[in-house]
Amino acid sequence: MGTALASTDKQVTELLDRLHEKYPDTTISLRFSNRLELLIAVILSAQCTDERVNSVTADLFEKYDGPAAYAEADQDELATDINSITYYNNKASYIRDACQQLLEEHDGEVPDTMAELTDLSGVGRKTANVVLQHGHDVVEGVVVDTHVQRLTRRLDLTEKSNPEAIERELMDTIPENEWQQLTHLYISHGRAVCTARNPDCKDCVLEDICPSSKVDNERDLASGEPWS
Fold first, then answer.
1. CATH annotation of 35-135
2. 130-155: string of b/e by CB count within 10 Å (b at 16+)?
């Protein structure tokens, strides 16, 4: 029990099969109706829950219609509109600047390449991957958020801690047709069972192939710390 399978390929195949069965309909939980709304929602979601973002964007998307509205918004007013979001001042600035870039460089449209997206203010590779996948139906990589980082390390699929390094390893080990869905599966499992502080290992569908299982392992491979 609590032991990774003999090869990475077998480990990956087994965990994907089990998670697909457990979470057959999992998908992105951010709410949006167009590419700009998706971009803004993902910028806001950094170090913030999707639930909180959705509660804020319900009013935000009603108030601001299109990139010009954000680009021309008063910084303090926009910050106040999102002040229940973590780092709201910085994120308000990112949104204003990114929308100005959209107007000046992309005719007001959200671009469809990794390079163009990551040139936007406040947009890193994770955000760009989400926008590409769910805004443009382009799967160029794996979205590595905190859940993906934690589960990938706990399942001993990487020892890396940098998200981009983890993404490179996942792209080498996960079938390309699973790159997008892997993130949703990990997020669903991370929220429901494999939480950061107190994972429910006894009721986990991956317990017997997880070398971080508290049932019979002493250390959390995600943090490197002993289980308390």
1. 1.10.340.30
2. bbbbbbbeebebbbbbebbbbbbbbb
